[in-house]
Amino acid sequence: xxxxxxHNTIVLPDGRRLGYAxxxxxxxxxxxxxxxxxxxxxxxLLAGVLAAPRGARVIALDRPGYGLSEPKPGRRxxxxxxxxxxxLDALEIERFALLGHSGGGPYACxxxxxxxxxxxxxxxxxxxxxxASVHASRRLTWRQKAFRxxxxxxxxxxxxxxxxxxESVVHDVDAYLAGRASSTAPVDLEVLRRxxxxxxxxxxxxxAYAQGAGGTVExxxxxxxxWGFPLGEIRTRVDLWHGEQDSVVPLWLAxxxxxxxxxxxxxxxxxxxxxxxxxxxxxxxxxxxxxxxDHPAHGSAQRAVPRIRVGRFGVARLSPAARGR
Length: 325
Description:
Blueprint: E1 2-11, E2 17-25, E3 29-34, H1 45-51, E4 56-61, H2 80-90, E5 96-101, H3 105-115, E6 119-125, H4 134-139, H5 142-152, H6 156-171, H7 173-179, H8 186-192, H9 195-208, H10 214-223, E7 238-243, H11 251-260, E8 265-269, H12 277-286, E9 307-310, E10 313-318
Parallel strand pairs: 3-4, 3-5, 5-6, 6-7, 7-8, 8-10
Antiparallel strand pairs: 1-2, 2-4, 9-10
């Protein structure tokens, strides 16, 4: 059975309600998806549609304060696996893969750390890195450091700015996107001009801010602080995908994460920005789905591409020709 079930909820052990969506093959291999910031379970649609013919399904969860999920005051990134565990138990899932996009990347990594051998593989696309780390402090500009310090304490300026963003999305999401055009990479603007993709992004933003800006404020605060778990103790297979032209998350943050996780592989994509996963989701899914050949997965992800070695992790630099696009 193939379907889209977008408005599911579960009551967690502490009494909170958590929302989630299931996309793809209903009885297929499960991939747990962590959305970006801002974002919601609805952003898992593309991955779910492509997972269906692979005999897989995507389970996309709203984090606290987003979409259908009630807030959790004082939450931490490392708390997220317990919410995920409750959903997995309710769905009677033992083994699964993880997929995290942008600000959802640290949450996927937290689950990889917490669940250990239950995880068959983890993929992070355009993922945020630990900006509070010593390595990051050496690379951030003084403006970026000032923003991180402000965000880490969720100061009124951050709350005000994000609340205004939420109001803008609710009243006119097109105007909101237009206002961000100057800071968006040209390659990402081209992706957003596709009607189907734009419609998905618009609906996801509306759902992300359905309860206001609270979820985003908490995520921005948490991402600016130490994550609460050591990347070096993740023992599952991890693939990180990042566009060289990403204007949201610097490439050096992605390679820093890849270097910190034992055996991790970074796929650096030329001529791609923060939304690179939209055109590479086939390859991303093929690295995750059980039953494929050993890492890297068979099919489109196994195309011959030039590869170099950097430290303890591999970097695959994909050109548009190598990607078959």
